Amino acid sequence: MVAICLLVPSGCKEVSQAFVHLDNGHDRPVTIFVDGIYAGRVESGHSRRLTLPLGHHEFFVKDDQRVVYSAAHRLDSGDRPYRTPVFILNPDGNNRYCELQLAMRPIETGHEDGLVTLTSHQEPPLDDQCIPTQVIKTLPEKTLPEKILPHDITTETLSAAEVRAQYKAILRRFNLRSPTTFFQVEHAEHQFSPIPIAAFPTEETEPSPSALARIPHPLHRYLSEAFAVDHPTRQDLEMLQKAESAAIACVPVR
Q1: pTM exceeds 0.85, yes or no
Q2: What is the strand order of the sheet 30-34 is part of?
Q3: How far apart are CA 158 and CA 164, in angstroms?
């Protein structure tokens, strides 16, 4: 192992920097300062990746009228010293996140080339296709964002057991994160970008690739409540399928 590390220094060299994605869920553009130094401006509904040295940093975020966020955080690689740690800073606290395990299947090209495509893949949406923050704030407490939900799902031929099995299978693909403003992404080696059209398969012993999804608050609430349903109906399954599609549609963290 030591010999391998010496031969491949890029693979075993301890990292000295971290990525911090400032994800603006605020209804106004924000300006970022790190350790008192201007670090950029992020439009509403967008994100910006900062590359910072490991260690303590002061984060100060403001819009044109007030301070949105001010706190100190320590960036470190923990027990993963050879992988660049990835953090999310959602200063306004309006966004919610879940981790999606990516289902994969061979590309139907007629020959075995090892490539796979994502069965859950959708083209990264344009900015105006994801619901703006100001629209999300107007939704009723129990309402899902219908404008981005597909309506071509049918469960009429499924038995109660099949409905429950499919419902539980969908839930296993979600790892919902509690609403926090600053957190580390545990699986930094996995996809952390708009889902690609194709990817190479991993070994069977490795976990499936995943993507971090930024999703609207009402959708996060619905998915959280879905875990408490023990005997889902066909209508519950259809709604969950639509909710999963909606979460996937908002995967890009710009």
Answers
A1: no
A2: 37-42, 30-34, 55-62, 67-75
A3: 10
What's the pLDDT at 52?
A: 96
Mean pLDDT of the chain: 74
* First-to-final CA distance of the chain: 37
Do strands 116-118 and 86-89 pair parallel, antiparallel, or not at all (unpaired)?
Answer: unpaired
| Residue 71, pLDDT above cutoff 90 | yes
Strands 47-53 and 55-62: unpaired
Q: How many CB atoms lie within 10 A of CB 155?
A: 16
Of 175 and 112, the structure prediction assigns the larger pLDDT to: 175
Separation of alpha carbons 249 and 253, rounded Å: 11
Q: Do strands 174-176 and 86-89 pair parallel, antiparallel, or not at all (unpaired)?
A: unpaired
Give the alpha-carbon dihedral of 173, 163, 117, 196, to 10 degrees: -50
**Paired tokens of 124:** 């990264």
What per-residue string of b and e applies to 133-148 under the rule 16 or more CB within 10 Å gives b? beebeebeeeebbeeb
